[in-house]
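Re: folding output
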Amino acid sequence: MTAGTISVSPETKAVSDDALVAFDDFMRLFENFKQDNDQRLKQIEKRMGADVITTEKVDRISRSLDEHKRALDQLNLKKVRPALGRDGGFPAMQSEHKQAFEAYIRSGDDRLIRSLDTKAMSYGSSQDGGYLVPDETEAAIGRRLAQISPIRGIASVRQVSGAVLKKPFSISGPAVGWVAETADRPQTTTATLDELQFPTVELYAMPAATASLLEDAVVDVDQWIASEVETAFAEQEGAAFVGGNGTNKPKGFLAYTQVAEGSWAWNKIGYIVTGVSAALPAEDPSDILIDTVYALKAGYRQNANWVMNRKTQATIRKLKDADGNYLWQPPAAPGSRAMLMGFPLVEAEDMPDIGADATPIAFGDFARGYLVVDRTGVKVLRDPYSAKPYVLFYTTKRVGGGVQDFDAIKLLKFGTA
């Protein structure tokens, strides 16, 4: 290997090649979708209704597009996921904590990790038992969650050491105004502050391992734990960040009080209505999406994202603007996001489906609007007894979340009021 070059493993190269092939297939499928959907729209214009066969074909291709996109996302995720085996089959240089943690995971020997607990209270067990994973493993879990947890990927994430994050927020700033050079300066009113609280609550997963896996010295047990818990954590987080009620879980942005945009106030999420129950307007349906975009202030639109599930996306994918251009555009490259009216579209399966008075579409600057709070430390408790001959690893982390700027997120409500 020459200086300045980067070694790429055969497995990573194979995944990259597969992703490129999958992306090409996805783009060809989208072209077929546009042709058949154009035919469906022409039939509607001519006969006041589309042919059933054409409609079914469009829906079938749309479902296939979703499946191809999910497969492409999995390939891209696999590309950034490190291999479980050690390079060359030899153990890498390990930190003292990592060595102690590995001894505990493989054999249950906690003498080394308990000695660390004696020297530094930053390591060790809490009242419910278990030991903190090494910092490298915690960082790997955090990176992977950002890849597969849709709201975490676009929200602000803050780490804390305490149980609750308290954040002051200015609802209204101090009064200001213009005055002449020699005029009196009247006393200004003070800013109005509100305190937001984001408690962290426990999220857990319990992967199981066989004795042969734990005895295999080539397998990196840290990476194994991270890969096992990432999906379980991401699924639970995703549901909570969208619709969690705030009781023993984060509070989702859909769980806050929702009001019509004209009546928006602090502590509430504003929405735009379609004017039709459980549907978009029959004429110029794209106009309501434009209204949703411009319900957001200019400062928030610069970093805004659409959030919806795949069923809603399938409906939006069929829409065109006044010039006949599709509003939904496929990703520009493998690993990038689809675009809707020039803004990235984030697919969150926990968003509700289109229905009467439902809010299946959100639009906003989630980095300013929603805050994810991670308490430092991921703990693992080894349990070789409950599911013999398997060894269970009760893995926990504490997570909180909630809206921090209520003006940064807007909803589209499929209703009349």
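--- second protein (sequence, then structure) ---
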Amino acid sequence: MNQKAPALHEERIHETAIVHPDARLSPGVIVGPYCLVGEGVTLGPGCVLQSHVRIDGPLTAGRNNQFYHGAAIGGDPQDLKYNGDISSVCIGDDNIFREYVTVSRATKQGCETSIGNSNLLMAYVHIAHDCMIRNHVILANCVNLGGHVEVEDYAIVGGMTPVHQFVRIGSYSILGGASRASKDMPPYMKAAGNPLRVVGTNAVGLERHRFSAETRRILKEAFRILYRSDLNVSQAAARIREEFPDSPEVAHLLEFIAASDRGIVR
């Protein structure tokens, strides 16, 4: 059961919790049984640490973040190149970290692992060093992100899916569970399988997020050109740009493809 945050002028720390004297807890923070809050941690108003949560700094979290039992946030990166440099984790507002989620700090001095706003990270999700999770992302149970992964707004990754380091997951895309992402996943698309294969646009997601019927039609046609024609990626991108020059969604899709170092999922 969720613990309800107290009024903002209150603060509640369980007698078994250990909070470093240099940690900064805003009004309304709850620290539950056997939690550990380390040096250099800043928690915004309304954050709740349920039980056995460990948060290490340097780390800054905004408002109303929920950390469920056993979450371990801000620990050293699992990277053999790490030599003890001071790096950080930056977390926005209204995120949910379910049971045993782990988030690692960045590897190099002055760098950060960042998590935006209103994300749902289900049980046993791992976010490695230097990842960037934007806003309204859903990572289902046991998703594992390698280092330097970027996940754009409103993307969904199904459970038991590993994502290779440096891969990007585009906005409003969805990856089926038990897949393996080793290349960049274009925005607005749907993919599944192992090896991962794009099978269409994320039609249901686009409709739920109130993309117009015309925008959905354009993206479906862009999918057809990119994945169902005999054109290579460069040729398909040129054709899409020529046919839909005024669509902001197409512009984002093409910018994403052009910026891909690993290549896109085919």
